[in-house]
Amino acid sequence: MKMEPIVMHGGDRVGAALAAHGVRFVFTLCGGHISPILTASKARGIRIIDVRDEATAVFAADAVARLTGVPGVAAVTAGPGLTNAITALKNAQLAQSPVILLGGAAPTALQGRGALQDIDQRPLIEPHVKRFMKIRRVRDLGPAVEAAFAVARAGVPGPVCIECPVDLLYDEASIRQWYADAAGKGTAIADRLLRFYLHRHVEKMFAGSAESGRRRRCAKSRLRSRPPPAWKQRPPPSQPLSGRCLSSAARRCRLRPRRHALPQRWRSSAFPCTCRAWRAACSGAITRCRCAISAARRCANPTACCSRACPATSVSTTAVTYAAAPR
């Protein structure tokens, strides 16, 4: 009998990390932004204690940390939930108490766009904690909780805040359906661009998460085989050529015609290079020859070598001088 893979969403990852560190209590004021964390923690035997406001939740987590030595955990909702916890966070910071604060946040695609309880939480919370972690991908939730426990205990103990957007905590199928409904089915260009943007955004959110317990195989898109444009196609050999370049080496010497029927990039293939033949013929006197013209300019013994025609290429210095001269 084939066993079904275990489905783990973002809330399950956070709950599993809390249980692995021996957390017994999570203090909270229930909210929709953090509901998956509370559900997953309760399923793993962690006691969920609901209080009357967010400051009380952090105060209680601070007390647990001082009494047990295990970092206390509090979970508060986004926006006003986090702002209400600032006083208790500052108290834990001054008392050097290790506290883990799990804060909710608006969906990642709607942050800064006026979503429900959406505010810029980092500037408000960061001065009162040792580290503020902003999560953008599902696969980072578990490692972030692990790092938060290490940071809260290391050196001078103190509080750590993890911002968990709501669309990272629910299961992938629900989030994909939610974004698909938000994108609509319009055929206008703006609607298509919106669907493309949201599709890529969701792919980045769940990249490497492997909800089924296995890492997904990334399917590579096949490139369409298209013929190259006309300006990239090589001309047939029978096409007449015009220009004053003797070789591709002459092109490196900046001898370019003012007008040419062929694209500049294919001139090297149209004119065969005679540099090797010239080197072979004049190897005794010319040591650093790159082309016929540069060889004539740098020849060590122009009287003995460059005044006569090269037997390998049948190109004389008169032809080279004529080619190099401007018209």
UniProtKB/TrEMBL annotation:
In the record, which residues are listed under signal peptide?
none
State where composition is biased (Basic residues). 214-225
Where's the Thiamine pyrophosphate enzyme N-terminal TPP-binding domain? 8-121
Which taxonomic lineage does the organism of this UniProt entry have?
A: unclassified sequences, metagenomes, ecological metagenomes
Q: Which GO terms describe its cellular component?
A: acetolactate synthase complex
Q: Where is this region: Disordered?
A: 213-244
Q: Name one GO biological process term.
A: isoleucine biosynthetic process
The name on file for this protein is Acetolactate synthase-like protein
Q: Organism source for this protein?
A: mine drainage metagenome
The UniProt family comment states: Belongs to the TPP enzyme family.
Family matches, as Pfam families: TPP_enzyme_N
GO MF annotations in UniProt: acetolactate synthase activity; flavin adenine dinucleotide binding; thiamine pyrophosphate binding
- In this chain, composition skew of type Pro residues spans 226-239
Check the record and name the InterPro entries matching this protein: THDP-binding (IPR029061), Thiamin_PyroP_enz_TPP-bd_dom (IPR012001), TPP_enz (IPR045229)
Cofactor(s), names only, from the UniProt record? thiamine diphosphate
PANTHER family (UniProt xref): 2-HYDROXYACYL-COA LYASE 2 (PTHR18968:SF166), THIAMINE PYROPHOSPHATE ENZYMES (PTHR18968)
